[in-house]
Amino acid sequence: MKEKYINLFTDFGFKKAFGEEASKEHLISFLNTLLPEKHQIQELQFNQNERQGASALDRKAIFDLSCVSSTGEYFIVELQKAKQNFFKDRSVFYSTFPIQQQAERGDWNFKLAAVYTIGILDFVFDEDESQGRHEVVHRVQLKNQHHQVFYDKLTFIYLTLPNFTKTEDELDTLQDKWFYVFRHLHELDEIPPRLRERVFLSLFEKARIARFQPEERDAYESSLKYYRDLKNVIDTARDEGREEGREEGIEKGREEGRLDEKRNLAIRMIRREMSDEDIAELTGLSMDVIAEIRANLAHFISDEPL
Asked: What's the predicted TM-score (pTM) here?
């Protein structure tokens, strides 16, 4: 059966649900579940210079939403489908743009408005996985050696949504409901009783695929295909790498398994005609290694019998 509602982890789906003027109330409701009382949003406007990333991979794999509230707080909302090298570095780098935007000409006392960077992640951090932690919300601020907040105007909030496992009957808070929608909207055939609130009724109407114009439907199908291909490539390569690591049974084997995992991932991306730059950014392999894989793959294909 075809899905009735969009997948919010697709670029198109996320923008449709949260990034349009008609979708502001959804974004405000969602963000307010993550913010302290002093920074609750009443109204916001989208920035003209939304940053969707400089590289082809950034444009395809994420959608960065940039906005400012009526009281002056800045927000970057980043959707991230898969683990990526230097993700945290990039997240910090992105946060510098709304900081620099606040600079004023002439005399200025350097007073800044609060900046929030919010990452909605379809994966968990490696350190959480290795240490068995299952938090969904990760709140990060600058702290001193006494673990006291040194600067409270720069906050990073990362949501590792695979860790959210509550069922419909367990949805007690508005935050729970939003997390559930992110994880399960595309799996639903009807609106669950616990989500029959005005903001969710509006979201479900916007997310109903049957109401899309033909060009919107085509754009969504293309976005959904990319998301599924990316997840399939990464999940398959990860499983193969883990299996090879288990067969070796020693640290060297695990290292080789991780390298093989990256090589298998690169092969699948090459076959899907992704660029070397995109492959390098996702796998961490060098351009030389990727060129070698391409050459070996081309040689193998040329040697196959017709």
From this structure: 0.76
- pLDDT tens figures, 47-73: 864 444 444 444 433 447 889 999 999
Could you tell me the sign of the dihedral formed by the alpha carbons of 97, 99, 104, 107, in that order? negative
Nearest to 223 by CA among 16, 67, 33, 72: 16
**Euclidean distance between CA atoms 231 and 222, whole angstroms:** 14
- List the domain range (segments joined by +) for residue 264: 215-303
Distance between CA atoms of 81 and 53, rounded to whole angstroms?
14
Domain boundary among 179, 211, 243: 211
Residue 109, Cβ neighbours under 10 Å: how many? 6
Number of domain units in the chain = 2
How many C-beta neighbours within 10 Å does residue 6 have?
23
**How many angstroms separate the CA atoms of 211 and 220, rounded?**
12
Using the predicted structure, report yes or no on whether residue 282 has a pLDDT greater than 60. Answer: yes
Which of these three, 165, 192, 211, is where a domain ends?
211
Whether residue 81 sits in one domain with residue 121: yes
Query: Could you give the CA distance from residue 170 to residue 176 in angstroms, rounded to a whole number?
Result: 8
Alpha carbon distance 89, 179 (integer Å): 25
